Amino acid sequence: MKQEHLERNLSVDILRGFLIFIIMFFHYTYRFSEIFSIETLNFPFLSLWGIFGVGAFFVISGYYMIHKVSDNFSIKFYLKSKFLRLYPAYFFSVVLVFAIVSIFKLPGREVTIVDFFLNIFLLNGFLKTPYVDGAHWYLTYLLLFYVLISFFIKFVYIRKKNNAVFGLLILLFLKDLFKVLNHFIPKIGLIYFLFGKDYLEFIMIGISIYFIISNHSLKYTFFLFLISLLHIVIFQGIEIGIFICLFSLIFYQILKHPKNVKEKFFLYHGKISYILYLIHQNIGYVILLLLVDIFSAFHFWYIFIAYGFILFLSSFIYIFYDQKIQLCLKSK
């Protein structure tokens, strides 16, 4: 959403647009087939497209978690600004998805009114109750990382920048330690969860890219990058590790050498990617199931109908709700 040196980098928006596009395609094909036992499309690596996209989004988020930090950093202000940027669209999406799924029904994906209110207050991810939309698990972890990294910034990065990389390595080590202990002491699983489980390494990749661009302790930063990448290979698989490595190189080049771009398709998707992500899954499934019921079979063009509807709805929410809310928040 913003470029490194305080200006918007449209190329990053194009990256976001590409990522949300492959996530939607994954959900409307492989994941839809997996949940509802309806044959759609399948080809090598399609099952990995979801984690490809989400992992890369975590990398981008990791970069932007730290790149505008100043010496008068405030945890309260940092978390408040992040929350206010995320919550209005999230609130609207939870209400909308719950209403549509309740009206049209979605077997195995419906939630109770109690679960709905837990979702509204962002408690369900911590209480292990169902999500109104399964894709919202990403937001639970993103909020965890904002809290974790805000304390890292305040008590390590601001005070002792030379030790920042070591601080991040310690976070990774602690996460691994709690992961191991979880096998012997189940209650430790909560701490492992609060450290972001095996998604923390994606955030570390993003922060590493920022440090590399800033020429911050390059030798140790490259070590952090490689250790984080090794974690991804071990815990997520070599294919995902290769993808994240290639994505990181592209992301680095875009940040290091920003260019004026005229490509509009992915650029627009990137601008509304957050809202697209919030509402695309269950509402898309409702549309696909309705079409399957009407025509008694799955056809490839159903994907375009679901995609077109979600794109229109996201654009409407972005223009007439989210932008207006954000302008009001900024004016206060």
Structure description:
With 332 residues, the chain is mainly alpha-helical. Helix content is 73%, strand content 0%. It has one domain. The chain contains 14 helices and no strands. The longest helix is centred in the C-terminal third of the chain and has 31 residues, at 301-331. The two termini are 21 Å apart.
Quick structural summary:
The protein is an all-alpha fold. The protein has one domain (10-331).
Q: What's the mean pLDDT score?
A: 94
Give the radius of gyration: 20 Å
| Termini Cα gap | 21 Å
Helix content bin: over 70%
Structural class: mainly alpha
Order of helices and strands: HHHHHHHHHHHHHH
If helices are DSSP runs of H or I spanning 4 or more residues, what is the number of helices? 14
Give the uncertain stretches in residue-range form. 1-6
Q: How would you sum up the major sheet?
A: none
What's the shape? Answer: globular
Number of structural units classed as domains: 1
Strand content: under 5%
Oligomeric category: single chain
E-strand count: 0
